[in-house]
Structures are given as structure tokens and as C-alpha cells.
């Protein structure tokens, strides 16, 4: 190991999009100021640490991805510790503290962290510090900041007890029991629940890693008429407070412009998840009417000449670029408009104070500047506080400087949540709001995360349409607002809509002699199989599908697959199928009116639809939402789930639909079983555990 100090601890992180790594780096930076040395590694680098022989305390920061899975970087580690042959005292020597990151919008909140935590406990490891579960839905910092604050005392006590233990040659049992008692006395933080009730108090600049910024250090003149805070303006008490702001992250990237020419890397080099496939878009259909509130598109890809495989219910990822006009705008603000096509070499800065600094894996060592900004960096990412802290040093106007300090400070936490996080502010918005801020290119590479591929549910069956893959999406719109000067479309959905515009509205120049579009636009994709969201293995088992809006997408694949199976195996027994679909208006956004065909040929047994915004002249108003229709079919739903042991699938919006559907199922089970709500909730939990109540949801 590289750090042999008595005050050493092992710091491991498992990250999917960079959040856990950034938090681990914050812990690493603060460690020195508290007299500790953090031996930091990605959890996947198992050749650089060994938990089997680790004597010092271990701190683990781990995120959650997909439907409650550990991040990709933790897969090998999790597989290793899940080995059933490991004895229950395998990690009896290990003491650790774990910080899990998640989003309570999703069903399996912080399940990546919980999985590792639970397994380490099963193998005899002991907590030296309470587990923290941070919720991105309300702001990770609400748990992360106080968890890190309390970590140093816990480490000090753990290392002291370890030292005492090493100095004693006997009474091992006495020591271990005193260890347990002492640790319970030290830690009274309940960080894993009731995040909303946690309040941060200003305790002054207690630690040397926190800088105190006095009001009289700056020359800030705010208009007296502004009584409401905004992105660029604060009000008391924040505007009159001394601020606790994070330590300045050390610079570690150097960018050198080169005169040489060459070619940019292939897009496949950006993806570590496996094989990528470049496939043509063969068809595009707008499923909604022009006057619908949302625009839904169906795209068809030709995968016939590839090894791409999928099942109905699977997802796949699209590699997408940033908006070119936004990149041009960013280059203009940075003063680099003339250098976009120049090649740059990205290296680690010599003499950097950043421990274990390396060039980010998603940044090529050599490429054009535009390639980095278009394909590698998530320029729409919500800036983290560490980024804001770094931007302070690039800002010349005193008032703007102060406001950026407030937004990254402990005292400005609610302003950060309101005006940056909840407003989906990105770097461009900040640079417009704070025009004296002129960051360097290296700073952007250091702080902007990897541009993530976007995931979509498959809306077809390879059995029904061999060599074809279809998917459906809404074109995401972000309206202009106080913190966003212009409206924007989603990074991927906006790009796809623009890409297939010739297919949607073919002009004479894009039509071949047969009148068909000759457009051959290609996109790069890679598979992301879903382990559970598939049709029942036994075709005789009945199932219910709930998919309003574009949530119907995977169920089209289900029904196509079922139709083909019925044609190929007329002697098989097939269970009944239910589909609950809803949208705003029947004439504007009823995405798949051909569902009637599945009903007529017997593939679909029951189709229930509802339209939330259509007026009704009926004496009894029809149900507006899918959860209302489910309640009307309570007896049948309960029969399918309880008596017939069927499956229940939900796809679509988490916040405004999936939770309401879950509540409706609890009510139905309670009513039909004549049981109280708690008992019904237990039944639903059992259905989830048995993988018979399955969700594919997004927020």
C-alpha cells in the first residue's frame, strides 16, 4: 500500500456517472486537513487493495444505477463478495463506513449501497460509522455534507481503538466489546432516512478545509428594490452571512493545442460497456398530432447485418452528441471560436496536488477541441458545488464572485437547490448569468462529467420483425425561465428529432424514384439488457400491462412477440393479457390505435383506455387516469395477481403515475382480500420480491 501512516484509511468509490467519485475526491481532499491520509481507489481496481488483509478503517462511497443495481464499476467486487462459499467471519477483521447514493424517485432507493452494506455485515464486517444514504431527489448534499463532517471524529475513534487493540496481547473479547460500545456512543447520526427533516446549522469555519468569506472582503452593491432571491441575486440572511465554502479543488489537467492534423477517435472508443453498433435509421413516424402537448416519435433501426440481440422488455443505449450550436456558443464565450477544429493534447498537469490524478477515461488523449465538447463532455450537466467553487476563481466582478461563493456555500444550500439544481441550470446558463466568469478549457475537462449515452425501451419483437428494432420517445422540452434564457430540447431526443426530420417531412430532393425517402442517417447504439422486465417464461401465465403515454413502448414488443408465438404454436396454452393505456386526448396522442388489431386477433384479451383531458357529457364522468381504471377492474386485477399468480408490469413516469398505480394496487388488494392496508402492502412487497410486480420507470 502507498500510505503507511498510522492515520491512514482506505477510501473506495464505485461510480456510474461520476457522483460517487467526486464525493470520494472531496473526502480525500479534506482528509489531509484533519490529519488523515486517504488511500483512494476505484472499487474495480482490486489489484490495488485487499479487503481480506486490510487492517485500517475502510470508507466506501457507492452509487446505484438501473433498477437498483450497483454501478458497473462495482460488478466484479459485488460478484466476489457474493460468493456463497465465503465463511460468515470472512471480514470479521474489517471495520468500515459506507455512504450510498440514490434517488428516492426510483423503487430500489440506494440499493447498490444497501447490497454491499448488507453483504459485508453478513461476512462479519463491523461499522465504525453509521451508513449514510443520500437522496438525489432532494439533494445529495443534505446527507453527504454532514456525513463527511462526522466522519473525522469516527475515524479518529476507530484508529485510536485499533491502536489500543494492537497494544494488547490478551483480553481480545474485552476489547471487541468495548469497541462496539464506544462506537455506538460516538455516532448518533441517523442519516439514512427522513432526509427532508435534516437541517444544516452554521457552526462557523470549524475546519481548516473550509474557508471563511467575510462580507467586508468584497465590494457587493445589490439593488435595494430586489427583495426576492434569484440565480444572480441573494437576500438576507445569505447576503449578510460569513460563508463556509468548500476547499478549492486542485487543478490537474493541462491542454496543449497542436498544429498537426489527423482524425478524431471512433465513437466506439468512448464506450466501455461493450460492443457498439452503427445502424441506419430506416423509418420515423410522428405518433402524435401537431397540436399535442408532447411530440412522440417512433424510430425503426436496421440491425439485420449486426450481432445486436434483444428481447422484448430490454433497453438499449444511444450514443448522442451535444447540440452543435451550444458548443459553438460555448467556444465563443471561452474565446476559442477559431480553434474548434484544432487538435488538442490532454495531459495531467505536472506537479498537481491531486492524488492519483489521471486523464479522465472519457477524454481522448488527442482529438479536436470540438470532438471533446460535442461527444465527450456533458455540457448540460447541473454544475456541482466543487465546480462553482472553481468558477469563483475565474470570475472578475466582485458581485458575481460573491454570488457564486454563496451558491456553493453551506449557507446558500437552499439557493443552490432552488436556482441551480431544481432549475436544471447548466454551464452555459451560468456563463450568461455571470458574464465576468471566464473558465479555462482545462477546468471544464476537470469538472464536467462524461456525456452519457441515453437509454430507451425496445418497442418491438425480433420474432415479429426480424432484423428491425423500434423505439418510441417524447421530444423533451425545457422551456425558457428566469435561470434559463432560452428554451432547449433534450440532448438526445432533440438530436434524434432533427436527425430524422427528412424521414418525417421528406422533400422532393430526399425521395428516390419510387417516392420513398432515401435518407440513410446512422446512429451508434449498444445493448443494455433488462434482467427482469420480460414476458413470463410460461406462456400460460396471465399478465397485466400498465403503460400510459410512451410507457406503452415495451408492451408493443410484448404483444408482437405474443402474437407470433400464438401463430407458431397453436397447440400452446396462452394466459389472458390486459393492457391499461392512458393519454391526454384520444384524437391527439393515442399513440397506437392499432392496439385494436391485437384485440381482434386474440393476442390481447382486455384493452382499457382513458383520456385525462377530453371533456365528457356523460352523467358519470369516465375515469381520467390508468390507476382509476385499475380500481374499476379491481376484482379481475386481484384475481390475476392472487388466484392465477399472474404478472403485473408498469412502465412510464415514476412521480406522476407509477406511485399512483402502486397505491391503487394496495387499495385493490386490501379491498378484495378484506385485509388492512399494511397487510396489502406486504403482499405487494412479496410480489415485487418474486419478480411478479415489475417496473420500468423514469423520473
From TrEMBL:
Top-rank lineage group of the source organism: Eukaryota
Keyword Isomerase: no
Subcellular location: Cytoplasm
Pfam families assigned to the protein according to its UniProt record, in alphabetical order: FAD_binding_1 (PF00667), Flavodoxin_1 (PF00258), NAD_binding_1 (PF00175)
Gene Ontology BP term (one): homocysteine metabolic process
Any Gene Ontology CC annotation: cytosol
A single MF term (Gene Ontology): flavin adenine dinucleotide binding
Reactions mediated catalytically: 2 cob(II)alamin + A + 2 H2O + 2 H(+) = 2 aquacob(III)alamin + AH2
InterPro entries: CysJ-like_FAD-binding, FAD-bd_FR_type, Flavdoxin-like, Flavodoxin/NO_synth, Flavoprot_Pyr_Nucl_cyt_Rdtase, Flavoprotein-like_sf, FNR_nucleotide-bd, NADPH_Cyt_P450_Rdtase_alpha
Keyword Cell division: no
Domain FAD-binding FR-type: from-to ranges: 274-536
EC number(s) given by UniProt: 1.16.1.8
Keyword terms, alphabetized: Amino-acid biosynthesis, Cytoplasm, FAD, Flavoprotein, FMN, Methionine biosynthesis, NADP, Oxidoreductase, Phosphoprotein, S-adenosyl-L-methionine
Subunit details: Forms a multiprotein complex with MMACHC, MMADHC and MTR.
Protein name listed in UniProt: Methionine synthase reductase
Amino acid at each position: 500500500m502507498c500510505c503507511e501512516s498510522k492515520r491512514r484509511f482506505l477510501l473506495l468509490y464505485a461510480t456510474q456517472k461520476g457522483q460517487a467519485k467526486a464525493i470520494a475526491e472531496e473526502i480525500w481532499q479534506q482528509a489531509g486537513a484533519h490529519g488523515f491520509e486517504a488511500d483512494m481507489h476505484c472499487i474495480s481496481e482490486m489489484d490495488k487493495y485487499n479487503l481480506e488483509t486490510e487492517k485500517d478503517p475502510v470508507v466506501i462511497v457507492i452509487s446505484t444505477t438501473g433498477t437498483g443495481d450497483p454501478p458497473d464499476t462495482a460488478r466484479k467486487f459485488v460478484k466476489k463478495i457474493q460468493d456463497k462459499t465465503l465463511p460468515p467471519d470472512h471480514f470479521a477483521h474489517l471495520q468500515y463506513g459506507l455512504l450510498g447514493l440514490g434517488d428516492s424517485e426510483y423503487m430500489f432507493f440506494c440499493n447498490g449501497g444497501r447490497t454491499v452494506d448488507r453483504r459485508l455485515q453478513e461476512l462479519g464486517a463491523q461499522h465504525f460509522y453509521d451508513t449514510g444514504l443520500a437522496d438525489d431527489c432532494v439533494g445529495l448534499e443534505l446527507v453527504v455534507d454532514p456525513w463527511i463532517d462526522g466522519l473525522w471524529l469516527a475515524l479518529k475513534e476507530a484508529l485510536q481503538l485499533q491502536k489500543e487493540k494492537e497494544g494488547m496481547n490478551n483480553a481480545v473479547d474485552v476489547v471487541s466489546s468495548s469497541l462496539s460500545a464506544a462506537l455506538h456512543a460516538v455516532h448518533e447520526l441517523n442519516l439514512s432516512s427522513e432526509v427532508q427533516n435534516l437541517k444544516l446549522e452554521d457552526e462557523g469555519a470549524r475546519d481548516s478545509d473550509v474557508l471563511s468569506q467575510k462580507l467586508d472582503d468584497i465590494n457587493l452593491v445589490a439593488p435595494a428594490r430586489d427583495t426576492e432571491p434569484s440565480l444572480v441575486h441573494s437576500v438576507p440572511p445569505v447576503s449578510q452571512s460569513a460563508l463556509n465554502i468548500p476547499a478549492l479543488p486542485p487543478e490537474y489537467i493541462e491542454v496543449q493545442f497542436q498544429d498537426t492534423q489527423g482524425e478524431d477517435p471512433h465513437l466506439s472508443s468512448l464506450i466501455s460497456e461493450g460492443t457498439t453498433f452503427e445502424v441506419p435509421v430506416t423509418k420515423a413516424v410522428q405518433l402524435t398530432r401537431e397540436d399535442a402537448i408532447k411530440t412522440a416519435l417512433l424510430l425503426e433501426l436496421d440491425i439485420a447485418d449486426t450481432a445486436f440481440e434483444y428481447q422484448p422488455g430490454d433497453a438499449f443505449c444511444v450514443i448522442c452528441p451535444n447540440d452543435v450550436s451550444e458548443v459553438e456558443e460555448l467556444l465563443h464565450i471561452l474565446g476559442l471560436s477559431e480553434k474548434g477544429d484544432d487538435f488538442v493534447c490532454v495531459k495531467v498537469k505536472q506537479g498537481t496536488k491531486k492524488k492519483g490524478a489521471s486523464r479522465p477515461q472519457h477524454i481522448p488523449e488527442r482529438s479536436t477541441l470540438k470532438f471533446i465538447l460535442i461527444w465527450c463532455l456533458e455540457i448540460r450537466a447541473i454544475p456541482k458545488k466543487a465546480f462553482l467553487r472553481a468558477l469563483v476563481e475565474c470570475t472578475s466582478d466582485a458581485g458575481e464572485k460573491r454570488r457564486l461563493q454563496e451558491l456553493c456555500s453551506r449557507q446558500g444550500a437552499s439557493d443552490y437547490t432552488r436556482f441551480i439544481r431544481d432549475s436544471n441550470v447548466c454551464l452555459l446558463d451560468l456563463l450568461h448569468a455571470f458574464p465576468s466568469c471566464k473558465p479555462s478549457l482545462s477546468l471544464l475537462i476537470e469538472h464536467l462529467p462524461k456525456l452519457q449515452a441515453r437509454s430507451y425501451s425496445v418497442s418491438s419483437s425480433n420474432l415479429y420483425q426480424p432484423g428491425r428494432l423500434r423505439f418510441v420517445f417524447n421530444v423533451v422540452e425545457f422551456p425558457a425561465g428566469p435561470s434559463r434564457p432560452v428554451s432547449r430540447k433534450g440532448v438526445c431526443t432533440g438530436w434524434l428529432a432533427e436527425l430524422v426530420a427528412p424521414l418525417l417531412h421528406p422533400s422532393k430532393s430526399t425521395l428516390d424514384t419510387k417516392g420513398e425517402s432515401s435518407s440513410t442517417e446512422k446512429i451508434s447504439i449498444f445493448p443494455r439488457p433488462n434482467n427482469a422486465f420480460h414476458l413470463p417464461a410460461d406462456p400460460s401465465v396471465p399478465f397485466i400491462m400498465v403503460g400510459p403515454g410512451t410507457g406503452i413502448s415495451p408492451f408493443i414488443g410484448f404483444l408482437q412477440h405474443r402474437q407470433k408465438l400464438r401463430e407458431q404454436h397453436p397447440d400452446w396454452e396462452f394466459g389472458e393479457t390486459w393492457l391499461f393505456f392512458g393519454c391526454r386526448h384520444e384524437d391527439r396522442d393515442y399513440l397506437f390505435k392499432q392496439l385494436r388489431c391485437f384485440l381482434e386477433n386474440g393476442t390481447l384479451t382486455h384493452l382499457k383506455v382513458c383520456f385525462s383531458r377530453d371533456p365528457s357529457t356523460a352523467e358519470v364522468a369516465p375515469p381520467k387516469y390508468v390507476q382509476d381504471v385499475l380500481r374499476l377492474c379491481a376484482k379481475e386485477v386481484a384475481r390475476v395477481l392472487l388466484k392465477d399468480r399472474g404478472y403485473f408490469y408498469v412502465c412510464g413516469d415514476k412521480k406522476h403515475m407509477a406511485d399512483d398505480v402502486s397505491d391503487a394496487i394496495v387499495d385493490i388488494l386490501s379491498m378484495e382480500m378484506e385485509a388492512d392496508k399494511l397487510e396489502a402492502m406486504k403482499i405487494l412487497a412479496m410480489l415485487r420480491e418474486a419478480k411478479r410486480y415489475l417496473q420500468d420507470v423514469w423520473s
